[in-house]
Design goal:
33 residues, elongated
Length: 33
């Protein structure tokens, strides 16, 4: 798996684990997959 994909997955995982750290618009910026 490419480093970019792993980085994106990591960010998505953190975003899902800590939704309170992001503004309400964050879900719209999240990748569809």
């Amino acid at each position: 798996m490419c480093a970019y994909c792993m980085h994106t997955c990591s960010l998505a995982r953190v975003r899902v684990a800590s939704p309170f750290l992001y503004p309400p618009i964050a879900p719209r910026l999240r990748p569809s997959w």
